[in-house]
Please model this.
Amino acid sequence: GEDVEQSLFLSVREGDSSVINCTYTDSSSTYLYWYKQEPGAGLQLLTYIFSNMDMKQDQRLTVLLNKKDKHLSLRIADTQTGDSAIYFCAENQGAGGFQKLVFGTGTRLLVSP
Amino acid sequence: EPEVTQTPSHQVTQMGQEVILRCVPISNHLYFYWYRQILGQKVEFLVSFYNNEISEKSEIFDDQFSVERPDGSNFTLKIRSTKLEDSAMYFCAILGTPQETQYFGPGTRLLVL
Model:
């Protein structure tokens, strides 16, 4: 089957903006998500976007959605060292509770001081 | 954000042994999910559970796996006869609000020797 694709690694300096990209597979996905995973920890829901939206902003986070190209991005403004983690995009397949999340391969963000 | 706890946080077992992983949502939920993440890989869907029945399962979820909600609160994943390749992080998730968002527990790290 097709995979949800992400670049593997991104390195930025503290204070810069980070942009993490994702290409998803299911054009019928109603929601798309970004999760953050710190080392040895669980998955923290960062933000999500409904598929009929182009953009969503939530404090330092901006999500852009290009439904035609099935492309999703997460921009983190003023990146901090505490933002260093693995970021997963995910699409939902199915509806309501009868859904499953299909995750991307994850992008490891490294923020240097 | 809904809270989910998982026990144990770590488990080491011998190949062929049975393990039971537990998920405890803080409040009542109807939809539950199990995912796993093999070290260094992406998060994979295992099974979804609603109203005391499996609603969907992946190819990974073979006859060695089972789920149940024995006391109306805990949600368990049982692996009957563990294999080396079952070593992974296992995450439980519940459906939150809005209704299309899944919130994950901290995970159980399973090591099969």
